[in-house]
Amino acid sequence: MINVTDIAKEKIFELRAKEGKTDNHNIRVAVQGGGCSGLMYDLEFDSEVREKDEIFEDKGIKILVDRKSLLYLLGTTLDFSDGLNGKGFQFVNPNASRTCGCGESFSV
């Protein structure tokens, strides 16, 4: 399961409207090789559900995750911060043994 905080939910709704996306555009979360810690998160709107996707829903947000990425993301919470120490979506991932300062890459 992947969870979404209330503030992340509101920001997703806001960005989806601002970008002219419909309710059919879900959030796709993936893990790719790269970043300063070895793995990095990829977050985008996607209206296509692929054959090997797992679909989660939390607070009215549908989250699409491919099965390979799911191994790294189970139990993760998607959050959003707009404070002085950073702005943007953040992943609170219990599977990560190390994360970089920017919060966009991690290792297990």
Automatic annotation (TrEMBL):
PANTHER family: IRON-SULFUR ASSEMBLY PROTEIN ISCA, CHLOROPLASTIC. Residues 2-104 form the Core domain. PROSITE patterns: HESB. GO terms for biological process: iron-sulfur cluster assembly. One of its GO terms (molecular function) is 2 iron, 2 sulfur cluster binding. It comes from Roseivirga pacifica. This is Iron-sulfur cluster assembly protein. Gene3D superfamilies: HesB-like domain. InterPro entries: ATAP (IPR016092), ATAP_core_dom (IPR000361), FeS_cluster_insertion_CS (IPR017870), HesB-like_dom_sf (IPR035903), IscA_plant_cyanobact (IPR031108).
